[in-house]
Every structure is written in C-alpha cells, then in structure tokens.
TrEMBL record:
Pfam family, one: CATSPERG_C
The encoding gene: CATSPERG
Organism annotation: Microcebus murinus (Gray mouse lemur)
Protein name (database record): Cation channel sperm associated auxiliary subunit gamma
Listed transmembrane segments: 1024-1052
Location of the CATSPERG Ig-like domain: 712-837
Length: 1112
C-alpha cells in the first residue's frame, strides 16, 4: 500500500511509496469494521449558501455577509394582512440575507434528491446561536438561539411543465445587535432520507465594502493567484484570535510578502489579501534588526479589530461593525501604534475580560523587559506600558513588587522509563539545557504549560511536572488548545503531538504508523482530501475538533489550500498495539483481539434539564401556512416569514423592562388582543379565505422553556450560590469482571473500573462520586454530584465577571484507548470535561410586580385612586397612602417567575415633576433624600422598618416590610411642587432597588431602576396660605362686587329709563315741529286757523309714551 507524506518545515518531502505489510492493514481494517458498518449508510450532507433577499430562487454562489442593517422590504406585504392574527400597523422589518439549503449524496444529482426529499416530507430545521458580545456594559449578556423551519421555494429558472421544477429550502438569516458571530446547526425533521447534521459559522465581515456592484476588502487588495511558494518550504504558524468572539480570522507568515489569509467562516473558504501598508523598516541603535522582510509575522484577530506585526512595526485595523458600535468606527487605513518602540513579538490574550479584549506586545532594544498591554473596547485601541518605571529584567529578584513563582531548572531532568517526573529539586539532570520559548494558560482548569525543548505542567503555579514523553531533541514551535480538555503540539520540524489535559501521556500523531494507515485508507477510498504531498499551514481547533489548513499538491503538481479535519481518534486507534491470540471454537480457531479499554460501554444518564444550567434561551419559528396546493412558498410568504422572525426577536429585546407583564413571556403582548379570535382565523385558513394567501399560526412563534438534555455534557454550565449539578455515568464492564465472594453474609461488590473527578478550584466547588454495581447487568452506575460551596464569589450583575473553573471526570486506563463508534466517526471516551462559570447566571432579573402591588395596596389602603390621565403602563399611586412595593425574580431562560423573598435597599436616585424634567441625583443628594441619618430635612420617604445597612446609611426592606410613607420634606426635590393645572401636583421618582450586601441567598446583584408616578402631593404651608389668601381675596372681591351690583342696579335702570325718555321726547318734539311747519305751508285760507284733529292727537302722544315708559 502506498501512502503520501506530509511536508515539514523546509523543503517539501518527495513522494515516497512505502510497502506496508499485510498484517498491518489487516489489523487496521479489523479494528475499524464498526466504522465501515456505519459508512453503509448513504453519505448525504447538507449544502447551505448565504443569499441576498433579491436573489431568492436563483442558482448563484454564496454571498458574503457584509450588510448589517435591516431592510424595509416587507412592510407593504404586511399592510395587506388586514384580517389576520397580527397587527398590520406594527413595524415589521426584514433581514438582508436568507439561507438557501439543499443536500447532496454520493452518486446522485442534488436536484433530484431535493425533490424526492420534499415529496417524502423532509424539512430542514435550522438552529441559529448568537454569540454574546464582549462589551457587556453596552449589550446584555445572553445565550440566545432561534430554531426555524425552512420553507420550500421553486427556483426561478424555467422548466418543462410535466416535470417538477428545481427547488430549494429557504430560511431567514437573522441578525441581532451586539452579535457578529453566529453558529448555524442544520438537521432534518426526521422524515425522508438520513442526512448528517451540519454545524458551521455565519459571521459578519466588517472588512468588506461594496463599490460599483463589486465587493472589495478594506484592508487591502484581494489576490486570485495562490502560488505554491507561499506555503511550500514555509513553516506552519499559529492562528491567534479571541476565543468564540472573532468573526474574521487572519493568518500571515507568507515569506517575503505582505499577504495574509482572511476568512469569516473558520477557513471553510478564505481569501488571499495583499495589505495596504507601507513596508518601511526603521533600524537604529536601540532597535537592532539584521535584515528587512515584507513578511507579516504575527497576526491576531479580535471581535472587531485586526493586529499585525511586520518587522518591529505594529499595525491595527478596525472593521466597520455598526451592529456592535452603533456607529461607523471602521478604519480607513491601517493605523500604526507604538511607533517609538521596537516590538519583537505580538502575543494574544485568548479570553476577553471586563468588557474588553487584550493583546500583548513584547519589546526589545532599549526598552527590553517592558510589556505593552493593548486594550480594545468598542473598536478603540489603547496601549499602556508595564511596569511603569523600571524593567522586569532590571528589578527581578531585587524588589518585592515582583513575585517569583517558579525557577525553571537549568537542565532537562533525567526521567528514563517514566511518563512524568515531579520537579522537587532532588532529581538528576541531563546535559541538555532547558530552552524555554513560551507559556500557555487555561483559565478553566488552571493548567499552566511552559514549553521549549521540554514541556512542564502545573496546576497551582508552584509545583511543576515534567512530561517525559516529549523528546528533548525536539523543540516546540507553538501549542494549540481546545479549552475543553485536549491540546495539540507542533514542533519546529512540523511534528504533531497530542495530549489530554490532566494526563501525562503524550501521543505522536505525525509522523506515525497510525497517520500513515489513515492516509493509505484515504487513498483507497479516493477521498477528495487525499494528495501526494501535504504541507501544513496552520493547526487549530474549530468547534472542539482539531483541524489543519493544508496545501495539497497532486500528481500534476496542481496545488490547492483546504481545511482538513485531523482524524485524531482514528490515528490513535491505528497506533494501538493490537494484541491478539487464537481461541479454539469447535473444530476451528478464531482470531481474538485484546481490547485495551477497561470498559465496553459508557453512557451518560439522568442528566438534568439543560436550560437551568446552560442559560440557553431558545425561540421557535415556523413559516406561515400557505394556501396553495403545490405547497411551495412565494416571495411574499417568505417576506412575511422573515418579518415575523424579526418581530419575535424584537419582542425578546424589548421584554427586559422594569414593570413586569401579567404573563411572564415575551410573546404574550404579540397575541394578547387576538388570542380569543384564534378559532376564527383558523376557520378562514381552513376554507382558504385568509388574506394574502397565508395563515399565521400563533402557536408557531413561541419561546421554549422545556428543552430535553442530550446524551452528553453541555458545553458549559453556570452555578449560582449553592447550586447542585448531578448526573450518572453508566459503564458496562468487559467480560464477567463483576463478581460476588462466596460468603453471602459478608459479601462486597467490586467494580472493575475506577472513576476519578478532578476539580480546578476545590475551594469553590466540591464533588462526590457514588458507585452502584449492577451485578445482573455486569455494569456500574457512578452518580456524580457537583456542588458550589457558597462562599467563593462576591455578588455581581447577571452574566458579569464570572469565575471560570471546571470539573474533569476520568476513567482509569481510558486515555487514548477507549472510543465510541458513531455515524460521525469514532469519538474518544473515558475523559469528560465540564467548564463551570460561578457567579450570577445570565438571564435572571428583578422586576417590579405592578399587578400584585396594585392589588395589595388597594387591599391595605381600602381604596385606590389613579391619575386623571391614566397610563396603563405606569399606574399612579396616591401620596397620602402607604406604598407597599413588591418585586419578582424572573428567569428569562426557564420561564420561572416568583416573588422576591430576599432583602433589598430602596433608594430614590432621580426624579422630576414631569417625564422630561427627570434628572439623576448626585451621591450626596441620594444620601440626604434616602438616609434615616439625614439631619437636613431632605428625606423623601421613610418606613417603620428598623433594619438598616451595616453603616446605618439606608433602610433594609423585604416583602414583609411595613411599607413606605412619603414625606417630601422642605429640602427635598418633591417639596412644594407647583401644580400645572387644577389637579393636584404630581412627581416622577426614579427608584433604584438592589440586594447587594444585604441578601446572602444568591451571587446575583439584582439591580432594578424604574419610574414611580405619585400624585396628590401636598403644597407647602406658605404656598397653601398664600393660595388661601389669594382665593379668599378673590372670593370676597366677587361677593362685594355682587353686593354693589345688586344695590346700584335699580338706580342704574331708573337712570337709564329717564335718559331713554328724554331722548325719545327730544326726538318726538323735533318730529312735531317739523311736521307742523310742513302742514302750515300747505294749508289753504278757507280751512281756518284752528288745529286739526291729527295735530291734537300727535300733541297728546308724548304724554302717553312718557307715562308708559316710566311704568316699565
């Protein structure tokens, strides 16, 4: 059998064909017969591509994730849904991308398979996990997931009528503020063919920009030609990044080129980019350099910023992540830092802390011995030098400010025939000097490794163990750790070693017999990852699995760069010394192999429900039901789908409000007004009368509180004060190793397997192991209980400043010998590691129980008066009533909600007569307004409770307290509030409630700030007297005016009548004389001179009118 080899540092190894003996492959094939039985299942895999919203139904490649803003493309569709379960007036937005899902199997075209799967009921289920952000001061810490069911959609390409057109499944690709790293898990609904689940990353790339319909890199220019000289004959290099937080990874080390490899999906695909930096070199007497090269030596990726080192120069580039920083803080060019320093090495800090990320720059030249610590917060980079005044090299051993933890021996110890050696100072040493090159620390199990041409391990920074399996002739280049219990070592000759943390046995993976057998089997199976020559570029862990980035060269000298999963378990299996012997069965001999594993089967049982410990919040969303016989969705129904997913996540983000809802569920407000009409909408859908051709089922959008445990330990657990986590390990022994002694009275049960538990911090956690032997099943049950000791940590905000620790479970003799065979391949057994985070778990909060507070206040005060302008979201309370506040402890993960039974401190920290005038008070004001020790007559409130804090500064209250009485003394801000209307004055108090320092039942520092609306505030005595005087004066004035009016009114009426009489008399007289003159001028002489009857009547009328007017 001929096998390829792997290229070390230096010239590529030539292709060597080594003849393997017949028994080697026979043993390998017999040892892996179970794996081949698993492979009888048809190998089918999911194919997932990221596609923009306007490209749905097109057969194009995967898009790059650079758009971070929500799109308003679904509003018009929702406005049509006037008679449906949702409110069309609400604001619905869409996501910029969808996930296009297909699957393929070996030997069959994908289109036929997808159609067959759809017709047999297959539906992909997509689980998206949002990674929590680094800066927990800006964003809420939470473990959020959403599970979606993919919707079938016909492709837009034309097809023949008699054939079913090509199709794919689509699901929205949601985004969330504060999260740029998303893990996607695709699996089937259990119908149709068996398809292996698939896990991958979909990360936002903030180092891309769109110009003229093309996507370009902001850090440099993308190169399409990947030349062999970039990787062949070059040493591998470490891949450095902030664990679980870096959306974009970069890798340098390309000889004499300022090129880097960039990827936003952990090297599933990647780009070669030439950086836009000036390749300058500044040499001086304080910064010696023997030569200049354009090579990018050190590269580090953080959540939003990239760091590189070229020669002694350090640069950084901040990506454009508006979803993180809420503003465009992206760099336009590479920024050079530490310009006056000579940097010989950039080192990563693998975990973020205190809301920031960190990098370390080591200096040489004039400032050698100083360390520059770089801090990255929200894309802003700053460096500080430590120590501040003197070099470590000058002061070590001289000053007491530096503590020497351990002195590394000068020479390598003599440890022949031993796996490890405890360094005590009394052992003998070889002539080989110890040459240390680096350190590596795991904060979960507190293991520190010091490495060079040796490997030292310590769990307490004081006692070190020398691992003797590593040859002193080799020198370690770098370490790679999974932070989940195992690590890999790369030497300067490109050897790969493997170590299970906590054990002392090192395994040489490459070159090895097991490695060669694995590659030979790859060649026989015609694997696509097989090549005649492999050159390792880097080694890294992805989702707990060891992977290589390798440059493959085939027989035609054609090269390609691929991500290759390292078959650690298979290599270890093939490396085992397969002892065998012949056993006679009947008339023939049987070949029997000795199993090196101490047990036959190992399972985990009785695992608790995970959400209480993992703090994983999960929502479920299904596509809307479509009213079409074909069952295929349209663009409108997909738009409705992503709008509903958006609104579900929007409700989740807005649920964390101070006033608790009557129902503890974020989706309650969505359906509360239409839940009673659910049957009506179902009737419309059943008769195909739903508006828009879609039916939105209320039960399809919900939060899940009852997840069932998997068959393995969770990725991590959170423990609050005194919490207990327990589970059972079931192991079946080999053969009949369990037995009972002959004496039945004094019999003892003996277990053939031994289980040990290793605690990283025994001062904080404790564990017990209780075995139970099952004789009839030849098995053993080990019940393992992990308990937090209740005095390890201080109170903190939910999800903040958690203490990292871990528990490891090890079966004696299982390291490298025990494997479980699954359809994913072999999996190592016998060693379990459970990371533990101690403190206040995320997802817990304190809420104001307004429902019970109103009920109890009404009951105690015998009445309740709300404001004239009532606000259902913020009810009012009357000033003169005793105020009884009640609070809830709500678990957003499990859905539990109960009355807060602990003690708390209540403070008024702000306020104002209106919502717009609310201001925050200073510390001195808070003390004066809330402290029972105040002597300045500034108290806002008081209580009959006599319990105070230790310094007697504030009252300590509980749910049994006697209530709050409002005072508003003369120097308080609520004293003498001027009413703005005829109603009594009002005031808005900003109230802070905290249990820090007064409640010992939890590690959680529950802090709640809410507004309290109080009405009916009294006026001050002076202002009240003034108002009374003014009111009385106005009243008396009105009375006097009334009296005066009543007395003078008759005289005024009489005077008016007289005046009117005189005016009428004058008018009548003028009319008489005018009429008499005109009559005399027209009278004839024969008529005589006596007055006529008409004239006599006119002359008598004024007297009659005067008499009538006067009698009015």
């Amino acid at each position: 059998v001929c096998g390829p080899t792997m290229s070390p540092a230096g010239p590529a190894w030539p292709r060597v064909r080594v003849l393997r003996t017949q028994w080697t492959l026979t043993v390998a094939l017999l040892a892996s017969w179970r794996l081949w039985a698993m492979e009888d299942i048809r190998q089918c895999t999911w194919e997932v591509a990221l596609t923009e919203y306007n490209k749905i139904g097109e057969n194009l490649g995967s898009d790059r994730f650079l758009v971070q803003e929500l799109v308003d493309t679904v509003g018009d569709v929702f406005h049509m849904l006037v008679d449906s379960t949702i409110d069309p007036d609400e604001k619905y937005l869409g996501f910029p991308y969808f996930l296009k899902i297909n699957y393929s199997c070996k030997g069959e075209p994908s289109e036929n398979l997808v159609r067959r799967g759809h017709l047999t009921g297959l539906k992909p289920l997509v689980l998206v996990t949002f990674q929590s952000p680094v800066n927990f001061y800006r964003w809420k810490i939470e473990q959020l997931q959403i599970q979606m069911e993919a919707a079938p959609f016909r492709n837009k390409e034309s097809c023949e009528v008699e054939l079913v057109c090509a199709m794919s499944w689509y699901t929205p690709m949601p985004i969330k503020n504060g999260s740029v790293v998303m893990k996607v898990h695709v699996h089937s609904n259990g119908l149709g063919p068996f398809i292996q689940e698939k896990k991958f990353h979909v990360n936002i790339n903030g180092f891309l920009k769109r110009e003229k319909n093309t996507i370009q890199f902001t850090v440099g220019e993308e190169l399409m030609d990947i030349k062999p000289k970039y990787f062949v004959n070059a040493s591998s290099r470490p891949l450095w990044f902030t664990v679980n937080q870096s959306p974009v990874l970069i890798l340098g080390g390309i000889p004499n080129e300022k090129h880097i490899l960039m990827t936003d999906n952990n090297f599933k695909d990647f780009s070669l980019v030439e950086l836009s930096i000036d390749s300058c070199w500044v040499g001086s007497h304080y910064c010696p350099h023997s030569g200049f090269t354009a090579t990018i030596f050190d590269t580090i990726a953080t959540e939003s910023t990239l760091f590189i080192r070229q020669n002694q120069l350090v640069y950084y580039f901040t990506g454009t992540y508006t979803i993180l920083h809420e503003s465009n803080r992206g760099s336009s060019n590479w920024v050079r830092v530490l310009a006056s320093e000579c940097i010989k090495r950039l080192c990563p800090v693998h975990f973020h802390s205190n809301g920031s990320e960190y990098v370390i720059a080591l200096t040489t030249g004039k400032n050698e011995g100083f360390v520059h610590l770089g801090t990255i917060t929200d894309g802003r980079v700053s460096f500080k030098m430590f120590p501040r005044h003197w070099s470590v090299c000058e002061q070590i051993g001289v000053t007491n400010e530096l503590k020497i933890h351990y002195r590394i021996p000068e020479f390598i110890p003599e440890a022949r025939g031993m796996e490890f050696l405890m360094i005590l100072g009394t052992e003998s040493y070889t002539d080989t000097e110890m040459v240390p090159k680096g350190m590596f620390y795991n904060p979960y199990n507190n293991l520190l490794f010091i490495w060079g041409n040796f490997l030292l391990q310590s769990a307490d920074l004081e006692n070190f163990i020398y691992l003797a399996d590593f040859p002193k002739e080799q020198s370690i280049s770098y370490l790679v750790r999974s932070f989940s219990g195992d690590m890999a070592i790369v030497t300067e000759t490109e050897e790969i070693w493997y170590l299970l943390e906590g054990s002392y046995q090192l395994y040489k993976l490459f070159p090895s017999k097991g490695w060669d057998v694995s590659l030979s089997l790859q060649m026989m199976q015609k694997s696509s990852l097989y090549a005649t020559t492999k050159t390792m570029v880097t080694l890294f862990y992805d989702d707990g699995k060891l992977n290589q980035l390798v440059y493959l060269t085939d027989d035609q000298r054609v090269g390609r760069l691929v991500k290759w999963p390292v078959p650690v378990e298979k290599v270890l299996m093939y490396m085992q010394d397969n002892r065998y012997h012949l056993q006679r069965q009947g008339s023939h001999l049987m070949l029997s192999f000795t199993d090196l594993c101490p047990f036959k089967e190992m399972d985990l049982r009785n695992l608790p429900k995970p959400q209480r410990f993992t703090r994983q919040e999960r929502y479920r969303a299904r596509p809307p039901q479509i009213l079409e016989a074909s069952g295929f969705h349209s663009e409108n129904s997909l738009a409705v789908y992503q709008g509903l997913v958006y609104y579900l996540l929007w409700l989740h983000s807005k649920y964390d409000k101070p006033y608790a809802d009557p129902v503890h569920d974020p989706t309650w407000r969505w359906w509360k007004n239409k839940k009673h009409d659910e049957d009506y909408y179902f009737y419309l859908a059943s008769n195909w009368r739903s508006v828009g051709g879609v039916h939105i089922d209320m039960e399809s959008y919900e939060k899940i509180y009852d997840l069932e445990p998997d068959s393995q330990l969770p990725e991590r657990i959170y423990l609050d004060k005194g919490m207990i986590y327990n589970f059972t390990v079931f192991m079946k022994a080999l053969g009949n190793d369990l037995y009972l002694p002959l004496a039945p009275v004094t019999y003892t049960q003996r277990s053939p397997v031994s289980v040990g538990v290793v605690l990283a911090d025994p001062n904080c956690i404790e564990a017990t192991v209780k075995p139970k032997v099952l004789i009839n099943r030849n098995s053993v049950l080990f019940t393992i209980t992990l308990k937090e000791k209740e005095f390890c940590y201080d109170q903190g905000i939910s999800g903040h400043h958690l203490l990292k620790t871990s528990m490891s479970v090890k079966v004696l003799g299982s390291s490298g010998n025990c494997f479980q065979y699954t359809h994913h391949g072999p999996r190592m057994q016998g060693t379990l590691m459970l990371p533990v985070l101690i403190g206040c778990p995320p997802g817990k909060r304190l809420a104001f129980d307004i429902t019970y507070t109103l009920k109890y206040n009404h009951q105690e005060n015998k009445h309740y008066f709300d404001c004239m302008n009532a606000d259902p979201e913020m009810p009012c309370f009357l000033y003169r009533d005793i105020f009884y506040p009640f609070f809830l402890i709500q678990d957003l993960v499990t859905g539990d909600s109960g009355s807060f039974q602990g003690s708390f401190v209540l403070k008024v920290v702000g306020g104002g007569p209106t919502l717009k005038s609310i201001r925050d008070y200073s510390k001195e004001e808070i003390y004066r307004y809330n402290s029972p020790q105040d002597k300045t007559e500034s108290l806002i409130w008081t209580t009959d409770s006599k319990v105070t804090t230790k310094d007697m500064a504030f009252h300590v209250m509980s749910h049994r307290s006697s209530g709050i009485q409002w005072l508003c003394l003369k120097n308080s801000p609520c004293y003498d509030i001027i009413p703005e209307s005829i109603f009594s004055p009002e005031f808005f108090f900003k109230v802070l409630v905290s249990n820090r320092g007064v409640d010992n039942s939890t590690y959680c520092n529950y802090q709640l700030t809410f507004l309290l609306h109080i009405h009916g505030l009294p006026l001050s005595a002076s202002r009240a007297a003034f108002i009374v005087m003014v009111s009385a004066s106005i009243f008396l004035g009105l009375v006097m005016l009334y009296v005066i009016f009543c007395l003078i009114w008759p005289l005024m009426v009489k005077a008016g009548n007289v005046l009117r009489f005189k005016i009428n008399n004058i008018l009548a007289s003028e009319s008489y004389y005018s009429y008499g003159s005109s009559s005399r001028s027209y009278t004839t002489p024969s008529q005589g001179s006596g007055p006529s009857p008409a004239a006599a009547q006119a002359k008598a009328e004024p007297k009659q009118i005067w008499k009538e007017d006067w009698l009015i």
